[in-house]
Structure formats: structure tokens, C-alpha cells
Amino acid sequence: MTCKHFGECGSCGLYDKSYTQQLEYKKGKVSQLLAPFYSNALEVFDSPDSAYRARAEFRIWHEGERCDYAMGNIEKNGAVTIGECPKVIEPIQKRMWKLLEKINASSGVLKNRLFAVEFLATTTDECLITMLYHRKLDEAWTEEAKALEKELDAKIMGRSRKQKVVLSDEFVTEQLTIDDKPFKYVQYESGFTQPNPQVDVKMIEWAIKQAKKVGYGDFLESYCGLGNFTLPLSHYFERVLATEISKRSIQAALRNCELNNVENITFARLASEEMTEALQGKREFNRLRDIDLGSYDFSTVLVDPPRAGLDEGTIQLISDIEHIIYISCNPETLARDLETLTQTHEVLEAAIYDQFPHTDHVESGVFLKKK
Q1: Active site at which residues (predicted)?
Q2: What is the largest CA-CA distance in the chain?
Q3: I need a surface site. Which of 12, 281, 304, 352 has the fewest CB within 10 A?
């Protein structure tokens, strides 16, 4: 990928390396962190080096009567206006510049106190555009935004403080082929989604490869989100218990089960720490009154925690489960957690997934089996 803003825009910090060099750099970084626990070569899952990002947010920079997209600068002390962004996928690319033209051509209704625009798109050409304002949105905005929906063939939402205006839908529906099976995912504007669809598929298929090695028992998942891993992996286990703290993500996950005719998953709205307390019998939850936790026989657990990694209680809980699939967005906390997990388990497989080309960020995964 080439971009005229390399070296100025802070969203791509590895602009001075070729994509092959970036992968080697990330592989070396994670290999060093995991070396005390895994001696084999990491499996590397690459990304297209452009047109890979299905979720993006841009500031709106006002200069006189004109609006431009802007990103934080590379020095992290200001912003830079941009005229291109080759990392976003085509459904965003073909709409974002037309949107900017319409905003600038507006008499002021669309641009007045607009401070950011968010895009959420799919590989099937759906696109949800959220426009964020420092003012209350009125009927005049709604009228212009509805016309814009038709012109852009997109879904548009408006947000301001304590106000959300949904003109059609507040979600898109992605369809991915995973392990030769089609899966549909409803993705909400305010919910977490994986930003790189092609690498997301590779990451899920890597997890499926590990699940196939197990081939028995029930499956436990923490931080399940909208069911990104849950739905495909459910095909390889008897029953699934998946937990997530976000109400919106649980809503999406339940809808995604319906869309994909999956019936062996039970979702529970619990934080990771609460899941541990419930499964260890330390605390009862009304949210679990219809779930017989004691009936599950977990052979495998998947955890996909935030950057902070796992809490001590969750590590203690999963240390009693035969197989662990750990997906990490922070190799430093993964390495920290492995110091404890490898007291009971050994790492059989390890991989990196390049969700974010041209940045230092790297996702990684390990598959562990009880010693």
C-alpha cells in the first residue's frame, strides 16, 4: 500500500517498512515474547496490505466553510487532514468521498457542528454511516440525511449528546464463508466487530482447526461478543455456553444464532469475573436461573480478552479445563498469562494474525492442552 499521508498521519506507523518486513517484525516480536513457552515457528496469517479495514472513524476538520476528514498526526500532538485512505475496504472508499462532497455542498444542515464520521461496512457492500454532532439534530437534518441515504445507497445514523437518530437500520449484516460454511453476522453500530474481515476468517478457521483436534464435550467461551467465534465453533461441540457483558452484543449474538440456525448455544450476560464466580459456585445470578451450569462438561474453552488480558480468577477457572484456545490482542499480556497457564498446560500451537497492517498492533493465538 502507498499513501500520500505516510509519515504525517498517525494511523499507519510502519509506513517505512515493506509489508513483508512488517510481518517479519511482528513475527519476531511475538516469537520473542512466547519463546519461554513455545519453541516452534509461529504460524503467520497475513492480510491484504490495502483495502482491508471494514470499520473506520474520521474526525471532521472545519476550515472556514469547508469540511475535511482528519486523523491524529504521527507526533500525537495534533491532526492532519487527509485526501485519501487506501486501507478502508471498497464499500467505504466509494462512499466516504461522495459523503464529504455532499456535506460541503449542504447549506449547513449536514456540516453544522459535525465533528466525526464513523463507517461500518461489509464484504457484501452494506455500509452504515454514523454522523456525530455537537448539537441537537432536528427535522431539517433528518430530511437531508434521508436523501443522502438514497444517493449513497447506505444506512445513515445521527448521534449527538443523549440523542440517536436511526433513519433505517442501526446494523449491517456481514456474510463470511468460514471452513466452507456460510455464516451471517448482524453487526451493530455500537457493538464490537473485527475490523479486518479477511483476517478474521483466517483467525476463526485457525481456532476451528484446534477445535477439530478435540472432537468431544462442551465448549465454554468468555468475551464472546456477537458470536464471531461462537457460531462456527459450535459445530464441533455438543453444547456451548458463551458469556459477554454487553447487552447489545448479546442481542446481536442471539439474532445471529437465528440467522444461522444454530441451536446448541446458550448465551449469558456475565463479565469474565462473574462467569468465574458462577461456575465455581461462589455466587448465584438471577440471569442464570434457567441455566443448569452443573450439567456442562467443558472439554475446551476459548478466551478473547481485552488488552489487559485475563484476570486471576478466570486463569484459575480455565486451568481446570483440558483445552484452551487463547486469542489475544496484546502479546505482552498473553505472555504474562502464559506464565501461570503453562504450569498446568503446554502450548501446542501458536500463531499471529495481522489484523492491522502498517501498525505495531498484532493479534496472536495459542492452543494449550493440559499436561
Answers
A1: 329
A2: 68
A3: 281
CATH superfamily of 19-49+196-370: Vaccinia Virus protein VP39 (3.40.50.150)
| Alpha-carbon span 59 to 71, nearest angstrom | 6
Q: Which residue has the cell 492491522?
A: 356
Q: Which residue has the cell 448465551?
A: 267
How far, in Å, are 102, 273, 277, 285, 288 from residue 281 at the CA level?
57, 12, 6, 10, 12
- Residue 1 is predicted with a pLDDT of 92
Distance CA 290, CA 201 (A): 33
pLDDT along the chain (371 residues), means of 10: 95 94 97 98 97 98 96 95 97 98 93 97 98 97 96 98 96 97 96 95 98 95 95 97 92 96 94 86 84 93 95 93 97 98 98 97 97 96
Task: Report d(CA 142, CA 109) in Å as an integer.
Answer: 9
Where exactly are the structural domains of the chain? 19-49+196-370, 55-170
Residue 329 designated active-site: yes
SS3 26: helix
Binding residues for S-adenosyl-L-methionine: 194, 223, 244, 304
Considering the candidates 9, 12, 85, 329, report the single residue annotated as catalytic: 329
Q: What is the DSSP string of 272-301?
A: HHHHHHHHTTS---GGGTT--GGG--EEEE
Angle of helix 19-34 relative to helix 331-341, nearest 10 degrees, comes to 30
Q: How many angstroms separate the CA atoms of 328 and 307, rounded? A: 8
Q: What residues form DSSP beta bridges with 345?
A: 370
| Residue type present at position 143 | E
Q: Does domain 55-170 have CATH number 2.40.50.1070?
A: yes
Of the candidates 70, 112, 93, 111, which has an alpha carbon nearest to the alpha carbon of residue 152? Answer: 93
What angle is formed at CA 290 by the lines to CA 215 and CA 232, rounded to 5 degrees? Answer: 30
